[in-house]
Design brief:
two-stranded parallel ribbon; 14 helices; mainly alpha; globular
């Protein structure tokens, strides 16, 4: 049924521990969201690929996994369903399917429902731990990003071990780092875009923090929200990112800087989705500029 794609399969392998950890944190909610997202995401791609007698790509499984892990645990299931359908359809299928999409489909779907249902996407949190048995409190609870904006700095140990409110997969810092090592060791992900994004984000946050502009320390900023998750799994998407080495560095810098600026100075507490789409828009131009730079060096 699925078109085999070894690279996408390796990404899936790296995401499995993160998803299992989300089940420990949020219990049946992680299972329920996946149970809605995967059938709808696969069905949406199938509708478009069937007309051309093509198989559904394994890449859609990666899209569904990333989208699921990017969801708040208490998000209504029908909203998650709308998001994955929109992401696969308008982020991928209408461009011609796998390999032709300009934007990351998981981020496209997430950003659509983030803008359409902002209240539910920013308040549907759940107390993490013990397979979701600690309960939910969407009114009085706050994520680590919201706490830092109000001057309350979370403990580094809590952030490191993922015991904080947030999206299903965004807090698994140690597992995300291990996934990055695996993806880099197997040459599945580009270290250039990953490094450029994380360093540029961390560097700008450090400058703003030590200049007294923001209250969030750099390390806490890096381990809060979805910066690491996005930096490892979405910035490195081989389809929607540039192909040239120089372009990959510039691409990562654009995303890292955009995330920091949006997070620190806009009404949105998290800027990763906007940062990814910003980078996606510039990816073809960056490849073009990198090609011209390479030709000039050869002539010289």
């Amino acid at each position: 049924m699925f078109q085999k794609q070894n690279m996408m399969r390796k990404v899936l392998y790296s995401l499995i521990p993160v998803y299992l950890f989300s089940i420990y944190l949020y219990g049946w909610r992680a299972l329920a969201i996946a149970a809605v997202v995967f059938p709808l995401g696969i069905a949406t791609e199938y509708i478009f690929t069937k007309r051309n007698n093509k198989k559904v790509s394994e890449a859609v499984l990666v899209t569904c996994t990333l989208f699921t892990l990017a969801m708040p645990p208490l998000i209504p299931l029908w909203i998650a369903g709308i998001g994955i359908i929109f992401g696969v359809m308008f982020g991928k299928a209408i461009y011609g399917g796998f390999g032709r999409n300009v934007f990351n489909p998981a981020i496209t779907g997430r950003l659509f429902i983030y803008i359409t249902f902002p209240l539910l996407m920013t308040t549907s949190w759940m107390t993490p731990g013990r397979f979701g048995t600690l309960g939910a409190d969407a009114v009085s609870s706050a994520t680590s990003l919201e706490l830092m904006r109000s001057g309350q700095i979370p403990e580094l140990t809590d952030l490191l071990f993922g015991i904080r409110m947030g999206t299903l997969g965004g807090s698994a810092v140690i597992l995300i780092v291990l996934a990055a090592i695996y993806l880099l060791a197997t040459k599945t992900a580009s270290w250039r875009s990953m490094l450029a994004m994380l360093v540029s984000f961390l560097g700008l946050q450090a400058i703003l923090y030590y200049a007294g502009v923001i209250q969030a320390p750099p390390l806490q900023s890096l381990m809060s929200g979805s910066v690491l998750f996005v930096g490892v799994f979405m910035v490195t998407d081989p389809i929607s990112s540039p192909k040239k080495n120089l372009a990959l560095f510039l691409y990562g810098i654009i995303i890292g800087v955009s995330v920091a600026l949006i997070r620190d100075f806009s009404l949105f507490p998290e800027g990763t989705s906007f940062g990814i789409l910003m980078g996606n828009m510039f990816a073809p131009l960056l490849d073009e500029l990198a090609s011209k730079t390479g030709k000039k060096k050869v002539k010289a």
